[in-house]
């Protein structure tokens, strides 16, 4: 099992100008690693990170958009896999942090737990490519392609639990301020 | 008595809104985005949009998706309209609250009142899905108006502007099935 924080460190070093969309337990660590204006965290609207990332990807086709989704979060809006596949954004990378539980609310097992294969679901929905990654070494090898190949791409990342959750971490920048920051930065860049 | 509104009038209104928002010299392809979960009441508009080269339609699996896609597009400076039905409004109230209200994302909605009786005010409808739409919008403090005929097409740019001015949701309810 990979540690979510180690995955995020690799991505922070390699993302370039990508817009990042963390949700739930990736949020606190990402705020520490990348306290910038090109990230927008999704908490409180029950699984919207993937569709939010789709909108960003369609509107900013010259940038990479990387969604840090959770298995519990994606299950809440599973239809977004088909929405994304139908829109075919070439610049969207959907990273699925799979730990098999709802960590934030007390680590209750997700429906189907570790048996649910999100990479297979994404492939069946019509993503251009999908993979499952279980080790940091494998992620390091695949990361350049994940950040440059045509999307939509899903990488299902087999992880343990994050050190922090939104429930035991200080609050970050309010969502509406993150929205305004991203809009200002992306619009200014043209 | 309310009347159906031709789809061509609605699409012209969309285009005028998007052209005004784009201004001169900015990206014009697509002119704007229509994010939709198909609505029986507005199906003539959706059919006509299929033939529109200048507008890009993204069909979503759910209204939750539609709200989040619209928010992402807004963050990149793109003009967006969301078309849903009243049942979709009910299905996505938490996302509207989280994204458009708390997130201060201006989202303009066209909401079809499927099964609304032509001879009744929606509050007197025998269908709960028709009766509850306007009261629900009131509870959330979302500005709204009902399009009851061709003369009301002007409500579309008016409520689109309201969503921008207040940085939040605003809606036009489609009273009768579009023509």
Described by strand count, sense and barrel closure, the largest sheet of chain A is:
5 strands, parallel
Strand content of chain B: 15-25%
Beta content of chain A comes to 15-25%
Which residue ranges of chain A are poorly predicted, with pLDDT under 50 across at least 5 consecutive positions? none
Strand pairing plus helix content of chain A: what structural class? alpha/beta
> How many whole angstroms does the radius of gyration of chain A measure?
15 Å
Radius of gyration of chain B: 15 Å
How many separate helices of chain A? 8
Calculate the mean pLDDT score of chain A and round it. Answer: 94
Task: Write a brief caption for the model.
The complex is a heterodimer of chains A (190) and B (179). Chain A has 190 residues and is α/β, with parallel strands linked by helices.
Show the helix and strand layout.
The complex is a heterodimer of chains A (190) and B (179).
Chain A: H1 4-14, E1 19-22, H2 27-33, H3 49-59, E2 65-70, H4 71-76, H5 80-87, E3 92-98, E4 101-102, E5 108-109, H6 118-125, E6 129-133, H7 136-146, E7 153-158, H8 175-189
Parallel strand pairs in A: 1-2, 2-3, 3-7, 6-7
Antiparallel strand pairs in A: 4-5
Chain B: H1 7-22, E1 32-36, H2 43-49, E2 55-59, H3 63-75, E3 80-85, H4 86-91, H5 93-101, E4 107-112, H6 128-131, H7 133-139, E5 144-147, H8 155-166, E6 169-174
Task: Give a description of the structure.
The complex is a heterodimer of chains A (190) and B (179). The longest helix of chain A has 15 residues, at 175-189. Chain A has helices spanning 4-14, 27-33, 49-59, 71-76, 80-87, 118-125, 136-146, 175-189, and strands at residues 19-22, 65-70, 92-98, 101-102, 108-109, 129-133, 153-158. Chain A is 41% helix and 17% strand. Chain A has 190 residues and is of the alpha/beta class. A five-stranded parallel β-sheet of chain A has the order 1-2-3-7-6, with helices on both faces. In chain A, strands 4-5 form a two-stranded antiparallel sheet. Chain A contains eight helices and seven strands; from the N terminus they run H-E-H-H-E-H-H-E-E-E-H-E-H-E-H. In chain A, helix 1 (4-14) runs parallel beside helix 7 and helix 3 runs parallel beside helix 5 (80-87). By secondary structure, chain B is α/β, with parallel strands linked by helices. Chain B has eight helices and six strands, in the order H-E-H-E-H-E-H-H-E-H-H-E-H-E. A six-stranded parallel β-sheet of chain B has the order 2-1-3-4-6-5, with helices on both faces. In chain B, strand 1, helix 2 and strand 2 form a beta-alpha-beta unit. The longest helix of chain B is centred in the first third of the chain and has 16 residues, at 7-22. Chain B is globular. The model of chain B has no long low-confidence stretch (mean pLDDT 96). Classes of the chains: A alpha/beta (190), B alpha/beta (179). The A-B interface holds A 40, 42, 44-60, 77, 79-80, 82-83, 86-87, 175-176, 179-180, 182-183, 186-187 and B 33, 58-62, 64-78, 94-95, 97-99, 102-105.
